[in-house]
Specification:
This protein is mainly alpha-helical. It is 79% helix and 0% strand.
Length: 162
């Protein structure tokens, strides 16, 4: 790396068109094109199931290992289906059914809460009304007892003085 980072290296490689102008990329077009042709030839030969079989064999061998992941079983079941998304769609349908059930339970719970709230509000209103009535009765009794001109205390005192 030190050799490439020297002034002599910059002078040598700086004059080359690949390092001084245009896009500096390393791209193997020939290898990429050959690989695409190989894949196209395989797809055209009808060996579409072969990679699936290899993957199934590999995953089943991995599943046999002690302590394998439960996710691995799901992946295998997806590969065994003709449409790997079939399992996904089934799981989505299950989730939608569960969401609908939860929604119905939520509606039922909300209606119960609304009923309880209205009953509680009615009870509070009745209690407040009763508190108001009792407060008025207490005020009336206090007046009856403690009124300075006609209260019971004044009447008792007047009777004792006579």
């Amino acid at each position: 790396i030190a050799i490439l980072n020297s002034d002599a290296a910059f002078a040598t490689f700086g004059g080359v068109s690949a390092t001084s102008s245009g896009a500096q990329q390393f791209f193997q077009r020939g290898a990429v094109i050959r690989r695409h042709r190989q894949l196209a030839d395989r797809a055209g030969a009808g060996s579409e199931a072969e990679p699936r079989k290899k993957a199934m064999g590999f995953l089943q061998a991995a599943e046999d290992v002690k302590g394998s992941s439960p996710l691995l079983g799901r992946i295998i079941s997806m590969l065994q289906a003709n449409n790997p998304f079939k399992v996904v769609f089934e799981e989505i349908e299950k989730m939608l059914g569960l969401i609908e059930k939860e929604g119905a339970a939520d509606i039922e719970q909300k209606s119960w809460c609304d009923k309880e709230r209205s009953e509680t509000n009615a009870d509070i209103e009745a209690s407040n009304k009763k508190i108001g009535e009792l407060s008025a009765s207490i005020t009336e009794l206090n007046t009856t007892i403690f009124d300075p001109s006609t209260g019971l205390i004044v009447q008792i005192k007047n009777t004792e003085d006579d």
